[in-house]
Design a protein that fits this description.
With 528 residues, the protein is α/β, with parallel strands linked by helices. Helix content is 38%, strand content 20%. The strands form six sheets. The chain has a six-stranded mixed sheet with strand order 10-15-14-13-11-12, sandwiched between helices. Strands 18-23-22-21-19-20 form a six-stranded mixed sheet.
Length: 528
C-alpha cells in the first residue's frame, strides 16, 4: 500500500487530447509504453517507442478490434498483488509482466447517443475491454494507477516527479473511485438506452449516471452541499448552454433556469416570439408577442413584483431592443437559443447577470425521464410530453368559446403544465394575467391568481384587472364548483380543464349558469 513506482504503462484511449505530450513525458521518465490500435499508431508516429499489446498476448487484434485486451497477460498484469508469493509465482510461470499505470478512456457511447446514431453505430460504441481493464486496475489500486480522462495526466506526472517516479496511495485511491464512477455512468447510459430500445418501461434495474459540470457553493440553502451533473441526454437547456458572462450559477439558479426554458420550449419560435419569467421554479409571467420586447413587457406586466430577481427565458435570439428592457430591473439569468452582438454588449454592462446561450429550444413533445429521490430510493416517470395543440378539446357547456377565448384557453393550459400544482392560470390576449401555484386547495390557487391580477392592475393604474374577459386554465379537474366560482368572480369568461371529476356535471352547470364557455382536455398536468 506504499508509493508505487511506475515502470510500465498501458495506454488505450478514444479521446487523444494531450496523449502525445503525456506519453512523451512518461517515456522521458523511463516508463515503458504498451498500447493498442490507433493509440499505438499515434504514439509511434510521434517518434516514441511503444510496444503493441499483441506483443504481450501473442495474439493479434481481431474481430474488428473487439478482441485485443481481453487476455490473462493484460489482466494478470493489472490484477496481480505485488509481493504475494502465489501471485508472483503465477506471473513468473506465465511470463506476465506487471502493469503499473493504465490510461483508458472509453468508446464515445454518450457522444453517439447525443447525435442520435443508428442502432448498429450505438452498439459498436459500447466498449467492453476498456471497462474490464479499468475495473481490474481500480480494484488493484493498491499497486496500479488508473487514469480515465486527460484532466488527470498532470496530477500523475506531478506525483511521479515528487516521489521518485511513484504515485501515492491517496492519488491512486482517488483515481480508482473516479474510474469506478466513470464505468458506472457509462453502463447507466447504455442500460437506459437499450431498455428504451427494447420497450422496457420499468426495467428490473435502473441506474443514474452523469459527468460533473460544476461544484456549487451550496444547495438550496447555505448549509447544504451541492453539485451539478450533466447526463447523457443532449436536451437543449441549462445543462448544454454556454454561459457567456455573469456570476457562477447557483443551485437555485440552475433549477429555476431549467423550469423557465422548458416552458419557453412550448412556444414555436417560427410562429411567435415568447417570453417566460420564472421565480422559485414557477412562472410569474408568460406572454407571446410580435417581438421579444413586446413579449417581455407583457410577461412582466403580469407580476412585476415577483419578476424582480427572476429568470428570463426567451424562445428566439435575444436582440438589443429586448436586452435593453430586460436589464432595467434586477434579473438573475437570461437564457435564449442565441444572442446577437449588440444584445451581448448591453447585457455585458451588468457584470453579475448570467447570460446563457442554449443553441436551440427543448422539444416539448420529445420523450425522456423525470427522476426524483425519495427516502431509500427514487421515482422515475416519463416526461410530460403532452401538448395542448395535439389534444382534442371537448366543449362541455352550452356556449362554445370564441376564437379569441379558444386561443387564450390553449395558451393558459400550455402555461399551467409548468406551474406547480394546484395550478390556476388566467390568460388574456396570449399573456398571463394571474398565476396561482402550489396551493393545497385549488380554490386558493384561483383566489391567489385573481389577487395577483388585482395587484398588477393597481400597479399599472388600471381600473379593473385583466382577468375580466380572460380564459382560465386548471391543471387538474375542479373537484367542486367553488374553484370555478372564484374564477367567475374574477371575471373569467372561458375555462379549460382536464375534466374527470365525480362532480363534473355540477361544475358544468355552474359554468352554464354564469354564461362561461368550458372545454375538457382529458389530460392532466400535475407538477408537484
Amino acid at each position: 500500500m506504499s508509493d508505487r513506482p511506475i515502470a510500465r504503462a498501458l495506454l488505450s484511449v478514444s479521446d487523444k487530447t494531450g496523449l502525445i505530450d503525456f506519453a512523451r513525458a512518461l517515456s522521458e521518465r523511463g516508463v515503458a509504453l504498451v498500447s493498442t490500435g490507433g493509440t499505438a499508431k499515434a504514439i509511434a508516429e510521434a517518434g516514441l517507442k511503444v510496444d503493441d499489446v499483441s506483443s504481450l498476448t501473442d495474439f493479434p487484434e481481431m474481430m474488428d478490434g473487439r478482441v485485443k485486451t481481453l487476455h490473462p497477460k493484460v489482466h494478470g498484469g493489472l490484477l496481480a498483488i505485488r509481493g504475494d508469493a502465489g501471485h508472483e509465482a503465477s506471473m513468473a510461470e506465465h511470463a506476465i509482466a506487471p502493469i503499473d499505470l493504465l490510461v483508458v478512456n472509453l468508446y464515445p457511447f454518450e457522444a453517439a447517443l447525443a447525435r442520435k446514431a443508428d442502432f448498429d453505430d450505438m452498439v459498436e460504441n459500447i466498449d467492453v475491454g476498456g471497462p474490464a481493464m479499468i475495473r481490474g486496475a481500480s480494484k488493484n489500486h493498491a499497486f496500479v494507477t488508473v487514469v480515465v480522462e486527460p484532466a488527470d495526466y498532470a496530477a500523475v506526472l506531478g506525483e511521479m516527479d515528487a516521489n521518485s517516479g511513484a504515485t501515492t496511495q491517496s492519488l491512486r485511491k482517488r483515481l480508482a473511485a473516479k474510474a469506478f464512477s466513470r464505468t458506472a455512468a457509462y453502463d447507466a447510459a447504455i442500460g437506459t438506452w437499450l431498455s428504451g430500445v427494447a420497450g422496457e418501461a420499468t426495467p428490473a434495474f435502473a441506474a443514474l449516471g452523469g459527468t460533473l459540470a460544476q461544484g456549487l457553493r451550496y444547495g438550496e440553502n447555505p448549509h447544504q452541499s451541492a453539485a451539478f451533473y450533466r447526463g447523457p441526454e443532449a436536451r437543449p437547456g441549462v445543462a448544454t448552454a454556454v454561459q457567456l458572462q455573469g456570476k457562477e450559477l447557483s443551485y437555485n439558479n440552475i433549477n429555476d433556469t431549467d423550469a423557465a426554458y422548458e416552458l419557453a420550449g412550448e412556444f414555436d419560435a417560427g410562429r411567435t416570439a415568447a417570453c417566460v419569467i420564472v421565480k422559485h421554479a414557477n412562472p410569474c409571467g408568460v406572454a407571446e408577442g410580435a417581438s421579444l420586447l413586446e413579449a417581455y413587457e407583457r410577461a412582466l406586466a403580469c407580476d412585476p413584483v415577483s419578476a424582480f430577481g427572476g429568470i428570463v427565458a426567451l424562445n428566439r435570439t435575444l436582440d438589443a431592443e429586448a436586452a435593453a428592457k430586460i436589464v432595467e430591473i434586477f434579473t438573475e439569468v437570461i437564457i435564449a437559443p442565441d444572442a446577437d452582438e449588440e444584445a451581448r454588449k448591453i447585457v455585458a454592462a451588468k457584470k453579475n447577470l448570467r447570460l446563457l446561450i442554449a443553441g436551440a429550444l427543448p422539444d416539448a413533445r420529445s420523450p425522456g425521464r423525470v427522476i426524483r429521490t425519495v427516502a431509500g430510493g427514487f421515482l422515475v416517470q416519463s416526461r410530460d410530453d403532452a401538448a395542448v395543440d395535439d389534444l382534442e378539446l371537448k366543449v362541455v357547456t352550452k356556449r362554445a368559446p370564441t376564437e379569441r377565448e379558444l386561443a387564450d384557453m390553449k395558451f393558459a393550459f400550455r402555461v399551467a403544465k409548468h406551474v406547480k400544482s394546484n395550478a390556476i392560470v388566467y390568460a388574456r390576449d396570449l399573456a398571463t394575467v394571474g398565476v396561482g401555484a402550489g396551493q393545497m386547495s385549488r380554490v386558493d390557487s384561483a383566489r391567489i391568481a385573481a389577487r395577483k391580477a388585482l395587484d398588477a392592475a393597481e400597479a399599472a393604474g388600471m381600473t379593473e384587472p385583466l382577468t375580466r374577459g380572460a380564459a382560465v386554465a386548471s391543471d387538474a379537474f375542479f373537484p367542486f364548483a367553488d374553484g370555478l366560482d372564484a374564477a367567475i368572480e374574477a371575471g373569467a369568461t372561458a375555462v379549460i380543464q382536464p375534466g374527470g371529476s365525480m362532480r363534473d356535471d355540477e361544475v358544468i352547470a355552474r359554468a352554464d349558469e354564469a354564461g362561461l364557455a368550458m372545454a375538457f382536455t382529458g389530460v392532466r398536468h400535475f407538477r408537484h
